[in-house]
Amino acid sequence: MTSRDDRTVVHLVRHGEVDNPGGVLYGRMPGFHLSALGREMAQRAAAYLGGHPITHLVSSPLERAQETMEPLAERLKLPVTLDDRVIEAANDFEGLTVGKKPAQLLNPRFWPKLVNPIQPSWGEPYQEVAERMSAAIVDARDAALGHEAVIVSHQLPVWTARQHYADKRLWHDPRKRQCSLASVTSLTFLGAELESIGYAEPARDLLPNASGAVGA
């Protein structure tokens, strides 16, 4: 039988804005760091979460995620576990500037990758993203039992995890994701059962000034 002491929250935080003036779809590429605005967003997320009873921190190994976690880790004086399971989704278009120049996709060599948007055929299947994210979330939940955990990840993995836990279809229109920069998606569990899903945007007032990350 579960009790209130078994209530655990796992917060999924999307990283802040990335310094990416060229509009590159950076995906898992190394060397992409937070912009000055992105670091301010990270501070906002840390301020929002800093008063919570957080006992466990997890980050994607990519630089932008680790840099988003830094202010919170410093505030809480907690170590950060790097977990490949919460990394950005694999994408065959990494390195292109399709956000600014979508005509690149008219090149016939890309056509075989565009045949199945549900899978998707250009990258890691949504089901695989959901499985690795949910495994990481369960481990974080168990590590923080009765308290709270934070995982800093990326837009597509966070949104896919949310859809999975909400028992909704995984394929979707990326333009309709509710997962802004430095946002916090909170999964509350009572024991092993999901109790609720919450969402907050601590850096919402900074978003109109953001250049917008290409990739996530």
Automatic annotation (TrEMBL):
PANTHER family for the chain: BROAD-SPECIFICITY PHOSPHATASE YOR283W-RELATED (PTHR48100), PHOSPHOGLYCERATE MUTASE (PTHR48100:SF51)
SMART domains named in the record: PGAM (SM00855)
A GO molecular-function annotation: phosphatase activity
GO cellular component terms, semicolon-separated: cytoplasm
Superkingdom of the source species: Bacteria
Regions annotated as coiled coil: none
InterPro entries documented for this protein: His_Pase_superF_clade-1, His_PPase_superfam, PGM_Phosphatase
Protein name: Histidine phosphatase family protein
Pfam families, per the entry: His_Phos_1 (PF00300)
CDD domains: HP_PGM_like
Residues annotated as transmembrane: none
